[in-house]
Amino acid sequence: MKYLPLLLALSAPVVLSGCVISVDGNDSNHASEWEEREQNNRKHISNLEQGAAFEAIARKMGVADFSEMHQKDDGVYRVLYYRTQRTMDDGVTTKDECTPLVFKNGALVGWGDSAYSAL
Questions:
Q1: Which residue segment(s) compose the domain that 79 sits in?
Q2: What is the pLDDT along the chain (119 residues), one digit of tens a residue?
Q3: In total, how many domains does the chain have?
Q4: CATH number, position 73
Q5: Is the pTM of this model over 0.85?
Q6: What phi, psi does 14 have (nearest 5°)?
């Protein structure tokens, strides 16, 4: 009985030798998920039509990466940002990796950086 802990300690490396733990974060499946998401967002954005309702687009596109609202004299502007391209492989989505969709009073008025800068 007093040799049982010694036996367990000596057999542990053999029993656990099949265990693998990934710690480097270079998971190719993770990269392909981002690529698929970006491609899907670009596909939906390429089919947008000016005047489309905010609710319909938000339902179709899903949760935006970023969202803003601006109150101006001529109405309420909402901006949804969807990731469409990767600039840095750091796992963090930033606005420069997204395409903004600009809505005025609930209707799509434009998308892209030029639409946002016209606010």
A1: 50-119
A2: 676 666 566 665 655 555 455 555 555 566 688 899 999 999 999 999 999 999 999 999 999 999 999 999 999 999 999 999 998 888 889 999 999 999 999 999 999 999 999 98
A3: 1
A4: 3.30.1450.10
A5: no
A6: -70, -45
